[in-house]
Structure prediction request, 746 residues.
Amino acid sequence: MWSQKTPNIRKLMSQSIDHILKQTYGYDSFRPLQREIISASLDGQDVVAILPTGAGKSLCYQVPALARSGLTLVISPLIALMKDQVDALVANGVAATYLNSTLDRHEASHRMAGLDAGEYRLLYAAPERIFSTGFIDCLKRWKVQAVAVDEAHCVSEWGHDFRPEYRQLSQLRQALPDVPFIALTATATPRVKEDLVSQLDLRQPAHFLASFNRPNLSYTIIGKSKPVDQVYEYITARGQESGIVYLQSRKGTEQMANALQAEGIKALAYHAGLQIDERAKAQEAFLRDDVQVICATVAFGMGIDKPNVRYVIHADLPKNIESYYQETGRAGRDGLPSDCVLLFSKGDLMRNLRFLDEMEDPQAAKVAREQMNQMVGYAESLQCRRIDLLGYFGESWTEDNCGGCDICLNPVEEWDATLESKKFLSCLYRIKERSGFELGLNHAVEVITGSQSARVKKWHHHELSTHGIGKDYPRDVWKDIGTQLTGLGYAQNIDKGDYQVIGLSDLGMQFLKSKDQTILLKKRPQTEAEKKAEAEKRLAQSGAIICDEGLFEQLRARRKALADERNLPAYVILGDRSLRMAARLYPQTLDELAKIPGVGQQKLADYGQTVLDVISHWLAGNAKQEFTDELPASNKPAKRKNAGIGDTVAETLKLYQSGQTIDQIAATRGLKDTTIGTHIASGIENGLLEVDPRAFYTIEEEQKIIQAVAKHGDEKLRPIMDDCGAGMTYLKLKICLAVQRRSRKS
Ligand code: ADP
Ligand code: MG
Ligand code: ZN
Prediction:
C-alpha cells in the first residue's frame, strides 16, 4: 500500500488548499461553499454543512485533512461506502485507510500498526467500531486532529436513515474535546439540523447551507401507460449509460429486471428481500459498470456514490417529495447533464391510498396521505418543476425558464379533448359490453378508426355504434389519446399475464355519465424525427461535453479494463468528465493531459501514458474532429442553459432604462413584479445596467444584508431574509446581492 511518511506531511502543510485541489484531485476551482467550509474547519471551528448530493461534500473534509498535519477520523455509516471512498483517495495518491468488520484480523492489525506509525492522513470507521473496547484510547494515541461525520442525518430520528449507533457519537466529542468536528449531510429539514447540533454536541458551529437546486438535472414527467415498454425505450435511447429504475415492490423490481434482461439489457433487481451478499454483489456490479441498470426499491440508496448515473427513472409513484428528491439526486453527481424521469399515473395514487386505508395508526396515515398529495401536486403541476421541488425545501425559484424541466423545455399546449375522450371511452365501454372482456389498445384504435380487419370482424366489433366514430384522426393520434387517458386514470391497463388490455376505469365511467366535465389533453408529441432534432439541440445547450464519441468509447473500454485489473469501479480510475475532455482536446503529452480536470498527479503517473497511447493509436486511424461549441465550465456542475441573458431580460432592461418603474414594467409585460426584479438584478450582475442602490435600499439595510451574507453565504435568499428581519423584501435583497456580485467581478 502506498503510504505517506512524515517529511511529505510537512511539505503538504505549507501548501495552500488550492494547490491541494489541483495537485491531488486535478480540479481547478472549488464548487460553491467548499472553500468557505474548508476554511472554517481549518480555523478550528465546528461546522455543519448541508449540501445536496453531488455538491462535493467529501472534499470539504478531505482537503482540510490534507492541509493540516496528522490524522483525520471520518465516521461513515456504510461499509461499502467506506471502501469506495478509500479506493478513490488512494487512486489520487492520498494515504487513507478504513477499519471495519470486513477485514480479517491480520489485515486489521496491519492497518493499526500503520496508524501507530502515523502513516495515514484519513481513517474511515463506522460508529460501532468507535465504541468497541479500547478504540477511543487508540484514537487518542493517534492524535486525531479532526473528526468528520458524513451522512450526519443518521443521528436524527427525524431523518430518513436513522442509525442508533450514531447516537453515541456525543461520547466521541467528550473523548476528543479539543478537536474540530465537521458534520455533513444532504438532508435539509430543520428538525434534522437541530438534532445534529445537539446530538453531536457541536460548539457554536458555523452553518453552511447550499442551494438545493441541482442545475445539471432535468426533471420530466411522463404519463404512465406501459411502464416496461416506456422504460425499455428510454434506456435503449441512452446507449450504454448507467441508470437506476425505482419501483415500489420487490416483485416489481424483479419483473422489470427480467423484462429488460430479456431484451438484452444488463439489468439486475435490488431489494431488501435479497440476501446481504446478493445485495452487495448487485451494488458492486453496478459500480463497476458490469451491470447497466439497477431496478430497485428504495432499499437501494444511500451509499450509491457512483458519479456517472445518467438517469433515475421512477416507474411508480414515490411516497413523498423528500424521498423523490433524494432518489433523483443519485443522478449526475459528476455534474454532467442527467435526467430524472417520473412515470405518473393516477392509478398508482389510488392503489397507494388503499394501502394507507389499511394502516393502523390514523395519525401516520394522515401524514402519509398529505405527503402523497403533495407528490401528486408536483406531478400534475403545470409550472416549472424546480418551483415545486425547491419550494418544498423553502427555497424560491424565480427564473422564468429553468431550461431543465419538461415544462420549461417544451411548454406543451393543451387542447380540449372532451369530445374525443368521450368517443374513445365509450368505445372501450362498448367493446366490453359486446364481448364481456377487454382487448388491447391497438384493437380499440382499430375499432374507433373503422377498421374492417379480421380481428375486428371476428368479435363483431364492426357492428358497434362506436365503430368508425374516430375516422377523422389517424391511428397514432388515437393511440396517444388512449395513453394519455390511461395516464390520467380514465382508462386502465389490466394485466392478463402475457399481455395487457385496456378498460374503462371508475373515473372514466363517471366522466361518461357527467355532462359538464371537460378533459384537457396535451398536444400530440412530435414525430420521432422532430424529437431527435429537439434532443440534439437540447444536448448542445445542456452543458454536456461534446466530444469525439468514437475515441470516448475507446477510452471508456480501456478504463474498464484498467478498473477490472485493479478490482476497482471504473470511475475511480478516471471520471466521465475527464474522459470526455480527453476525447475532445486530444492531449498528446503528459503536460497537456495534466490540464484536464480530474487528472491529479497520482492519476497522471498511474494512467497518463495509457490514455496517451489510446489517443495516439486512435489518431493513427482517425482524423481529429473540430469542436466549435463553447465548452461548459469544468469547475461547477454544467448548467442546462444558454449563458448570458435572454430576450425577456433584455426587454425588461430596455423598459427600465426608458424610465418605467418596476410596477409599470410588470403591468406592461403581464409579468410578476418579482420576475421583473430578477431581470433587473441579472442586468446589474452582468454589467448591463447601473442603478443607484439608494433607490432600492438604505445603508442600514445594506449593512444587515452584508452581515447575513457573511453568515449564510449568498446562495440562498431565505436565511438572509430571516436574519434581516422586518422591512426587508426579496427585491431589495436581490438588487443588493447583484450590486455586490458585480463589484466583485469588476
Ligand atoms: P456529495 O458527498 O456531496 O454527494 P461527492 O463528495 O461524492 O458529493 O462529490 C461528487 C462528485 O463531485 C465527485 O465525483 C467529486 O470528485 C466531484 N467534485 C467535488 N468537488 C469538485 C470540484 N471542486 N471540482 C470538480 N469536481 C468536484
Ligand atoms: Mg457524500
Ligand atoms: Zn423548469
Q: What stands out?
A: The first helix runs from residue 6 to 13. DSSP finds 35 helices and 17 strands in the chain. Residues 1-14, 634-645 have pLDDT under 50 and may be disordered. The radius of gyration is 28 Å.
